[in-house]
Structures are given as C-alpha cells and as structure tokens.
Design brief:
Layout (H helix, E strand, L loop, with lengths): L5 H13 L3 E7 L3 E8 L4 E8 L13 E5 L2 H17 L3 E3 L30 H4 L9
Antiparallel strand pairs: 1-2, 1-5, 2-3, 3-4
C-alpha cells in the first residue's frame, strides 16, 4: 500500500468526519473540533484537532493537527487525554458534537412511514394520476 502524505491523511480524516464516521467528536472553543476516527482503508486509528473549513474543502483548516495510532485502544486513550486537557483548560464546549458536519438534509432517501402526510410516491406520480403510458384513449 502506498504511503499517504500528511495532507492526504488530513483530507481523508476530514472526509470521514464529515460523513459522520468519527467514533467520538468534541467541540472546542473557537470553532475547533477534536475527533477520534478509525480509517477502514488503512486500518489505523487517528485523533485529529482542527478548525472549521471556510473554503469548502479547497484548503486544510489552519492549525490542523493529527496523531496516528496502530490501534483503536491507543487512539482512544490519546483522545481521552486531549479531551481531559481541553476540559481542564476550559476549552470544551460540547463533548459529543455534530456541529458543522456535512449537510444531513440533502443526503439519502426520503423516509416515509405511516405518519407521512402523503401516501403518493413522487417517483411514480404519473402512475398514481393515471398518466403512466402517456397515450390518450
């Protein structure tokens, strides 16, 4: 397997975090975040600390740091230590944060259930109104 550059690793970690793949994530003061992430591609665990991305992925957020670990246990211990340090310094805003993650509103299928306000399937709306074959009788 080809070794990744530091920028490639950071980009991959931010992508995983943005997709909601972080095992743990905490919000720190100054719009900064601390995350524990297991990368299934490399089978390594990471802790990453970063600010918000104002460039929509064009640049790595300023002052981004990451630490790589061979296993989840070591990474988890490092995450807990950094979290404790942030808490002691008064920098911890929220321990389990989903703030500033990817746009959940536009991803995935629309979920409907028995309490939905519409029983019509929008993908086959023409069939529901009798316009399925487009022919006139």
């Amino acid at each position: 397997m080809e070794e990744r550059s530091e920028e490639q690793i950071i980009s991959r970690l931010l992508q995983l975090e943005n997709e909601g793949q972080a095992d743990r994530r905490a919000e720190l003061t100054g719009e900064r975040y601390l995350a524990l992430i297991h990368d299934p591609d490399s089978n390594r665990a990471y802790v990453i600390k970063h600010g918000t991305d104002e460039t929509e992925g064009a640049e790595v957020p300023a002052e981004t740091e990451f630490w790589a670990y061979p296993g989840a246990a070591e990474a988890g211990q490092a995450f807990e230590q950094l979290l404790a340090e942030a808490r002691q310094a008064g920098e911890l805003v929220e321990e389990d944060s989903t703030e500033d993650l990817g746009d959940f509103e536009t991803g995935g299928a629309e979920v409907r259930d028995q309490y939905s306000d519409s029983d019509d399937d929008l993908l086959i709306e023409g069939e529901a109104t009798g316009e399925s074959d487009g022919s006139t009788s």
